[in-house]
Design goal:
mainly alpha; 2 domains
Length: about 70
């Protein structure tokens, strides 16, 4: 991963790096690898995450098609 430092502005480059790492899921990965996770627990967690992603995608699709009221209120 690479971030360009412009005009010696390290703070801005650090913020950009953190944002990239957050998007890539590196922080979550580090947190998960901190302790050993049993294979059965890992499998259950990954299955639950997949279900959550599928439900979120279906909900967004339904909102886009106008089947379900929702979205953000401004």
């Amino acid at each position: 991963m690479q971030v360009i430092v412009r005009e010696n502005n390290v703070d801005q480059a650090l913020r950009a790096l953190k944002k990239k790492m957050q998007r890539e899921g590196i922080f979550r990965e580090m947190k998960l690898r901190n302790f050993y996770e049993k294979p059965s627990v890992k499998k259950a967690r990954e299955k639950a995450e997949a279900i959550r992603r599928a439900r979120k995608l279906a909900r967004k699709r339904a909102q886009r098609e106008g089947l379900v009221a929702g979205g953000r209120k401004r």
